[in-house]
Design goal:
The N and C termini lie far apart (58 Å). The model has no long low-confidence stretch (mean pLDDT 87). The chain is of the alpha/beta class. It has a single domain (3-122), classed as Transcription Regulator spoIIAA. It is globular and about 35 Å long. The protein is built from five helices and five strands, in the order ββαβαβαβαα. A five-stranded mixed sheet has the order 1-2-3-4-5, sandwiched between helices. α1 links the parallel β2 (11-16) and β3 (41-45). α1 packs parallel to α2.
């Protein structure tokens, strides 16, 4: 099974082209290992994935921490109801972010402007 890799903005997007039950699991783990050294943000797009094995869930759960330690993250997008139920049952849902689509996930990693910065940027006097 193929796992497509795309680079967008500050994230690497991985798109498995099938179920992560037997085929593709080792490739996914290899990609996560490689990316944990080089990328801050990884988005796993599950558009073409209907099912995940227990081993795949373990790999996802394991690699959440290395990405967080780099002030990054591992995010899931286009997750179907079967996989969402599995994430709830295993409590992985508590430690990983899930988004409806890629744009929402990418927006979550863009720089956030705090309240003080907003006040300064939008004040009539500008910076003092």
């Amino acid at each position: 099974m193929e796992i497509e890799r795309q680079e967008k903005e500050k994230a690497t997007i991985l798109i498995p082209k099938g179920d992560l039950i037997y085929k593709g699991i080792d490739e996914l783990e290899t990609l996560f290992k490689e990316l944990s050294d080089s990328a801050r943000f990884v988005i796993l797009d599950l558009t073409h994935t209907r099912y995940l094995s227990a081993k795949t869930l373990g790999i996802i759960a394991f690699y959440i921490k290395p990405f967080r330690n780099k002030q990054g993250g591992l995010k899931l997008v286009n997750v179907n109801e079967n996989i969402k139920k599995l994430l709830y049952v295993t409590d992985i849902i508590k430690v990983i972010e899930i988004f409806d689509d890629e744009d929402a996930a990418l927006a979550s990693i863009s720089p956030q402007v705090g309240n003080l910065e907003k006040m300064l940027l939008w004040s009539k006097e500008g910076f003092v």
